[in-house]
Amino acid sequence: MPDPVVPPAGEDLVLVAVQSALADRPGVLAGARGLSHFGEHSIGWMVVAAVGALVSPSRRRDYVAAGAGAFLAHFCAVVIKRIVRRERPHHPAVVVNVGTPSRLSFPSAHATSTTAAAMLLARPTGLPLPALLVPPMALSRLVLGVHYPSDVLAGIAVGAVVAKVVGALNSEVADRTEGARL
Length: 182
Hints:
- The protein is 70% helix and 0% strand.
- The protein is mostly helical.
- It is elongated.
């Protein structure tokens, strides 16, 4: 006799609730998939940083730092994933709406690199990018069914730490460069 399906609980229940509330709305899945492809391996953020460095030579160092920070954040997330080895959501009630490069879930590398990129790109652009970019990317990971909420929150935290470190190093280099010019 097959095992009865256990109703979703905890983070699985949150995923089912998010998917039930949002996945059927027009454009939501397409948008979430677009964000997923853009954020894969932090490539989209590195392209944005490269374009910024090319078109804004006076802020080049900040844009390069943003690209490097996004990549470093992604790298940190991958290392943590390989240590923690938490598998992605797999409850039958959770619909997986996009392919993933691995079965590992914690932390969300998309949330990690997006947070780092948004925080670091805020400096040269002067825009409130963390508030504009992080929530949609974080929510997209839940809508797509590829991360638990705690994966996304951990990714945001790791990305923020990486951004703070990279930002501080960038500021120190800028201060030394400016001091050398005087």
